[in-house]
Design brief:
Largest sheet: 10 strands, mixed
Radius of gyration: 17 Å
Number of domains: 1
């Protein structure tokens, strides 16, 4: 089943009040997570992440230096925003946020699962949607400069970079 058919099925099921099967939900989750499970680094000024609660644990939280960063939480109608701000904009104080599989215990210790890493110079906004709604795992990086490095390829500059509804949009 292609992804558009799956989305249509999930949307119809949600609107009709029919429950989605566990298998359908897992397929939809895998489809939304798949583009983040690559060796990719994105450098940007700002990052906005929108997720439903089921994906919350797959989004890493950046380290915060209270003397140099600001952290605030805002509650809205059906969502909670967590906002990390680097008021100086200095690259050495950038936030690092990862989205992907969590580390797993391996034979020789913890092994990091595949993930996309974002280095954010100014601000990160993580919006966690609450209540019943379609699954969501989206990230949008903006400038003024956005650099994307896929695997061992050289970095490339793009106007913006986003992964929306399971698709990469450079």
């Amino acid at each position: 089943m292609n992804r558009y058919a799956m989305l249509s099925l999930l949307a119809f099921a949600a609107c009709a009040g029919n429950p989605v099967t566990q298998e359908q939900r897992e397929q939809a989750e895998r489809r939304l997570l798949a583009p983040f499970l690559v060796a990719r680094e994105v450098g940007c000024g700002e990052l906005r992440i929108d997720v439903t609660g089921n994906f919350n644990g797959l989004v890493g939280r950046p380290a915060v230096d209270p003397a140099r960063h600001r952290l605030e939480t805002r509650r809205g109608d059906g969502f909670v925003d967590t906002v990390w701000t680097n008021p100086t904009g200095l690259p050495e104080l950038a936030f690092v946020v990862t989205i992907g599989e969590p580390p797993q215990q391996g034979a020789t210790g913890w092994v990091q699962g595949p993930q996309t890493k974002f280095r954010v110079v100014q601000q990160v906004v993580l919006r966690i949607h609450e209540g019943r709604r379609p699954l969501q795992l989206d990230a949008a990086a903006s400038g003024p400069v956005v650099l994307v490095k896929d695997g061992s390829a050289p970095p490339r500059q793009v106007p913006q970079f986003a992964i929306i509804d399971g698709a990469v949009r450079p």
